[in-house]
Amino acid sequence: MKIERVYRFSSRIYVAILIPSFLGVFVSTTEEPRWEHDLASFSKLSTKPQPSPSYLSQNCAKSITDSMATCSSEKEQALVVYNPDPLLASLHETEHEFRLEWTGTGRSLPDSVKLQQGGRGTGATTWAAGYILATFIAKYHSNMEEKLPRTFVEVVKTRGQEFKFEDRTVVELGAGLGLVSIVLGMLGSRVVSTDGDETVIPFLAKNVRAYRQHMKHVVKVARLHWGSSEDVQLCMSRLPAEGVEGGTTVDIIMAADVVFGQDTRVWEALLATMLKLSHRGTIIFFGYSSRYDLDKKFVESLSEYFLTAEIPSEDWR
């Protein structure tokens, strides 16, 4: 699959604001994150079924516009990007290749990443916000401060943090096929790459393993169902014990296009998991393609717990 065909379409949608994608950076503003959610209550989510590739191709109405389709039934409603060739077809591809532009690495890194694709859910492919976030980090990791408001950067520094990725402990939520985790691994981060879809995990592990020779640290893969205390503890156990006083802490959390649907319990579980993994200085990079009102409401909920700043689109193109 030629990535230009898939992501030229996605990028054009973003520029045209058909399905706008936003990259938000969130920094904890509390000494200890408020923990008002009982993780156990989210451990057995009964979510709406995610649309499969066959469902999309068979049931999406193609008459809305050339770039959108709506899928609806009595049980679910969803807004999805529609392009019969290549986007929907890409869900059936077994391999994708993604171009990357690196700056400030001081060494040669692959100019593209090939990902093996498989699984049954929406995590079985790489969506637009994931590609945007990965390319943004690859290109601007060495001058990230220049892309953010000065006051925001000052707050980050007062908390003993800085915008760098080498040797930082990173947890990616909803990693899917692992593109963002692979980029971070190549930049020297200590990454725990997680996903809640057990059918995706083998492909995620295979993809990150394929680029081990370009990484300073091994990218670890773990299943993490949002809201599951057991999975959160498993994730924490895989972190390097190099935090404050020898404890395990998360420096950075990554999440891009991780929710597809309007089940509020899923969003609540995501927020609860982010809070559980965060400490005073944790930075969260969150990218999403705006499909529902809940996307914006989730960002509003994050603002109750985190200082937020949006990265203008002109700064990551």
TrEMBL record:
Offer one Pfam family short name for this entry.
Methyltransf_16
Q: Which UniProt keywords apply?
A: Membrane, Transmembrane, Transmembrane helix
Q: Indicate the transmembrane segments per the record.
A: 12-29
Q: Would the keyword Membrane turn up in this protein's UniProt record?
A: yes
Against PANTHER family, the record matches this protein to:
HEPATOCELLULAR CARCINOMA-ASSOCIATED ANTIGEN (PTHR14614)
The molecule here is called Calmodulin-lysine N-methyltransferase
